[in-house]
# Entry
Amino acid sequence: MSATDAPAEVPVRAERSAFLLVFGGALFLSATLLFAVQPMFAKMVLPKLGGAPGVWSVALVFFQGVLLAGYAYAHFIARYTSARLGAMIHIAVLALGFIALPLALAEGWGRPPEDGQVFYLIGLFTVSVGLPFFALSANAPLLQAWYARTDAPGRNDPYFLYGASNLGSFIALLGYPFIIEPALRLTDQTWLWSAGYCVLAVWIAAIGFYVNRNAQNVEVQRPTSAPATVLQKARWVFLSFVPTALLVAVTSHISTDIASAPFLWVVPLALFLLTFVLVFREKPVVRYHILAILLPALLAYVAADWLLRGLVPTLWLIGLHLFAFFVATMVAHSRLYAFRPASDRLTEFYLWMSFGGVLGGAFAGLAAPYIFPTILEYPILIVLSALTLVHTERVDRQQLYLSLAIIAVAGLVAVYALITDTTVGLGRDDVYRAAIFLPIAAALLLVRIFPLASAMLLASALLVCGVIAPRSANVYMTRSFFGVHKIQDYRTGVFRVLYHGTTLHGAAQLENGVPKPGWPEPLTYYHTQSPMVEIIRSVREANNSVRLSPVGIVGLGSGSLACYRQEGENWHFYEIDTEVVHIARDSGYFRFLPACAPDAKIHIGDARITLADNDLKHELLLIDAFSSDAIPVHLMTREALQLYFERLTPTGVLVLHISNRHLALLPEVGALARELGLQTLWKQDPPTGDYGPRMLATSLVVALAKNEVAFGALASLDGWNKIDDERATRAWTDDYSDILGAFRRNLK
# Structure
């Protein structure tokens, strides 16, 4: 370069660097908005469906589906329209998104149906946020395609920009529970998001006009590289299917057992997006061979835990599952990046990748709850994750035959066990454990030499040991939109227990394998000396009456509380899940409801909706609603408590059962009582040694009333105290909640 050329070269280099900053910034903001809206809007929808974890699973599937539509639209724009026309069309689509601003639940969508909640949710999401989300979803492939038309650095391989955009997604998701949710009301969040969307629309319009200003309307860019083969497309789909399906399964597992809240939803999704940042680059942060060594060991342990349960404490186990998910996703996305095509086929690559993501989300979030009676999709995805390590070009005929033989033998053993009802008794647990660990250990040893055969060994262990389970297996199992319900006969037929997820929701005594005759004694949290029962007795005495009428119970479970109903009392149960009603009333597995309150009215639907729909005035209203171990947040807000007291008599008492392994909720209740001017009493009954022998469980219960007189003699009983006034705690509302704060307090 001559001296005379130097001055002209400087602005050219500056312009190229500016392109990188402008495109990178637009992609960062677009991804931030794209993924911030997911937990924000799903939180707005939660009260409609009782805080069910299934809301987030459906949300993931919906957003994946719209993402596929956006990628298909971007592919069409890039392939079949001129550069200038394509830019004008996309700017118009972004402008259409203004119709939905500021974001809110669409009007006219009232009470959800008793069945078909999935279709209700998809419709609500579509009309509420479909347009702006569709416009945002096309930005990543389109902006990368536009970037390839510039002279900016890396224009021949712009896939690194996809990793940069996912950095914005990652920051948005982690920022939501740690910064946005604790600090801002939902109303403020929607206005802030809407402002960001407007800024982005103007930004992208400027990029589109500038980059394509010299393009001709007749110009249509055609790819010059070789088209992708069927095998390449199948790889793209498979390597996108597995991590997305695993994302839904892991999220459902975690949010069911702690709380259905954005705080927990966003962690797996943030890890999912972080993998793109780490591997969609020329030099990945973690080398593939390290991931290939880690993944089999992690999958083996997760498989063993799925079969045996309880190998490590819950929180450690959640961390393990998340780490295994993270590594499995890293492996799949590393291979996906390795199989990327040339930049002129970039939009086609993203289209097939998104298609695989939609299939994965639909499998785990929509199909699995109807196909499988329990979370069987999780072990299936463990095996599929192991298959991502398989390099098809290295699989010879010998390994293929060996793999087929392994899975065939396992299938025959499983079929034989099903036909003959073969199980492993409780006295033979060592045999069962050996049957689990031996094939898993063999799979670990073989993974480097025969990865396909190793994956089939892992599948065999899960298949056979899942069928030949210990004798304490389920008596009955069913699955609904709201989770998995299991009935088990415990301690050699002495007790029958009901689980939702991994949390006990009721128990009954057995005699000769059937419910014990006579008065069905309530157990677990509802035993005769429990805090809830003490409240029922005290409120009766305070009203100088032998009976209470009407009484409202939110959350049916096994129906245990029905057996504290007195003759002549009018009890109403509020239950969102029709499967729970079947278990408690119609199945014959529990006698509480049929024996003690056969004429009790059961209101189906979310409690806030059904309570608002009737004019009953209860003397006692007990909120005992759980989804596994999670208490639906919208049932503990200021608006919820205001509704409850509208449905109570002037001397009525509200009872909140807030037992929880992971969240400290007493300060939240205290803050609500302070704001509403309510009197409180709470009790945590001390743990005893009777949980195992007699199935008596400890519980944390709060009673609230407008006047202390309503409590009767409750304050004089052992263990009852007023809630300390913790003014540092902010009361939850429908517009604000802070699950993370409750989680932190519990850790302390």
Remarks:
- The first strand starts at residue 474 and ends at 480.
